[in-house]
Write a structure and sequence with these properties.
The structure is a single chain. The protein is mainly alpha-helical. It has 4 helices and 2 strands, in the order E-E-H-H-H-H. Helix content is 46%, strand content 7%. The protein has a two-stranded antiparallel sheet. A hairpin with a 4-residue loop joins strand 1 and strand 2 (16-17). The termini are far apart.
Length: 69
């Protein structure tokens, strides 16, 4: 797990960080799908195994996208 707030892991399935989301939004991405496609990281459905909280990352992921829009 990443400790730096700016580079905190947001999506554990696809190993996407806050910094990567910011970069994708700066390149015009506005949705989770667009961010994943831009980054070439499309692994999904393993939230309960990968996320330490055992929940889906979508609410936090969407919040992170909105933060950079």
């Amino acid at each position: 797990m990443t400790t730096s707030k700016s580079n905190a892991t947001i999506c554990y399935c696809s190993d996407i960080t806050s910094e990567e989301i910011e970069q994708a939004v700066n390149h015009g991405c506005k949705s989770i799908k667009e961010v994943r496609d831009y980054l070439g990281k499309n692994i999904t459905g393993k939230c309960k195994e990968m996320n330490p909280q055992g929940v889906c990352c979508h609410p936090v992921f969407e919040q992170e996208i909105k933060k950079y829009l």
